[in-house]
Write a structure and sequence with these properties.
There is one protein chain. This protein is of the alpha+beta class and 166 residues long. It is globular, with a radius of gyration of 22 Å.
């Protein structure tokens, strides 16, 4: 490859890498109620408000024509990704049309949803009753798995090799 082709390839790859890192799901935020939190929406039984909420998936339940996700809500950052280092904002349910694969939408994964509040629904968590806000999903964004690397002790490798150049 020539230097011109290599330079062009480098520029394209850099642009792709930067755009992948810098952006979130790109939800339309027009008309979204940014002040409403899941706990408040459930207790006040608010319906029809447009919200963008996110958090950590607690459970997934495929149903006949839809999938229900139970989510522990967290505040969102600028890219709409849940900030799990902050205090939770309660739980909510996502009702998504169609089938979402439970192996992909598994416990512990982060998700962000844009949709309208349908209702409040009561269920039990252990022995306690809990009131959930239910969001009818327009758009569900599953965030890539968080790769956590544990720092290991420094490793030193020694080797002897012979390189053959043809």
């Amino acid at each position: 490859m020539g230097t011109r082709t290599t330079g062009l390839l480098f520029t394209i790859l850099t642009a792709l890498a930067l755009s992948a890192c810098a952006s979130g799901p790109g939800f339309d935020t027009e008309g979204v109620n940014r002040d409403l939190q899941p706990r408040q929406a459930a207790s006040e039984r608010i319906q029809d408000a447009l919200v963008i909420w996110g958090g950590t998936i607690i459970s997934v339940r495929p149903q006949e024509d839809s999938t229900q996700l139970e989510v522990l809500a967290y505040p969102l950052d600028r890219s709409e990704q849940p900030r799990t280092d902050r205090s939770s904002q309660g739980r909510f349910l996502i009702m998504a049309d169609g089938y979402l694969e439970p192996a992909d939408y598994s416990e512990g994964r982060q998700v962000t949803v844009r949709g309208r509040l349908l209702e409040s629904r009561t269920a039990t968590i252990g022995e306690a009753e809990y009131r959930y806000a239910v969001v009818s999903a327009d758009n569900v964004h599953l965030w890539p798995r968080q790769v956590t690397t544990q720092r290991q002790e420094p490793r030193v490798n020694f080797g002897i090799g012979i390189g053959i150049i043809r």
